[in-house]
Amino acid sequence: MFVKLDAELTPIDPRTEKITGPVAGYIRFKELIELQGLLGLDPLFIEQCSDFSQQNTLGVWEDYSFGVINIVEMENIFKDRDTIGLYISKNLFLAIEIIDKDYSAQKAFEAALQQTIVRERNIPRILNRFFKELIKSHAGVYYRFRKKISELEMRVWEKIEEDSNFESELSNINNELLTLFSYYDQLEDFCQELAENENEIFTEEELTIINLLSKRVERYGANIRILREYSNQLRESYQAQLDLHLNKIMKIFTVVTTIFLPLTLVVGWYGMNFTHMPELSWEYGYITVIILSIAIVVLGLCWFKKKKLI
């Protein structure tokens, strides 16, 4: 699909018409190989486009720029990503479908053409709108993840000793944030390379549009950084709560051990098999040991209570 960027978005066929003026096209990789001569594309560009290992990188040549984008879908961040190549020159913008299983990239391209204001249809604006369509599902990413982390934070303070799934859930969130952070970071590099305009394919006015796109991606990246810091703070809070809970348990054990240590001494003392132990034959010996044991427990509890240890 090729269209002239005029008021009517006139469709053109590069097989029968010569491409003049600003043109945008969405093309599959196989079609690109067939049309490379008619489109006047550098053979080196075809070789670069076939290198599917590239990820969100942009190469700059004398009269064009080319990059590959691996698209992250918010619905399933870890699924196999669609891959789109972008060819940008003064008069030609190509979105090259390398992998597009759900046709999301093609739909984004079509929406970019239709939603751009007629008087503003040029390659930078179409490119800007195309990127916005690709990442429009990311608009609510900050609030979505903030809500998830906030819910986990509430659980930290409510029932930490019972929450066995906390670590796995927080780990999943961190993995998703790390993936998005890497994605936005690479997109920032992509946009900054365009904004540097080393091959001078954009005018000063058009560079303003590219800079707006770069700032949008930077803002998304900044939001992810904030969320990562938030999740790290939550992990620290969780660990602090675990330590506090463990300290409480250890304090209880310490109190019990301290109280019963004198009783253990009494048991050990009178458990010795000596012949001459007057208390053993004393009429009130048994009741005295009982009273002594109770007194030790009561005094121990009172002392710990006074020291606010229980």
Automatic annotation (TrEMBL):
Single GO MF annotation: cobalt ion transmembrane transporter activity
Catalytic activity: Mg(2+)(in) = Mg(2+)(out)
Domain of life: Bacteria
Main subcellular location of this protein, as a coarse class: membrane
Residues spanning the membrane: 252-272, 284-304
Pfam family, any one: CorA
Name the record gives this protein: Magnesium and cobalt transporter CorA
Species name: Treponema denticola H-22
Taxonomic placement: Bacteria, Pseudomonadati, Spirochaetota, Spirochaetia, Spirochaetales
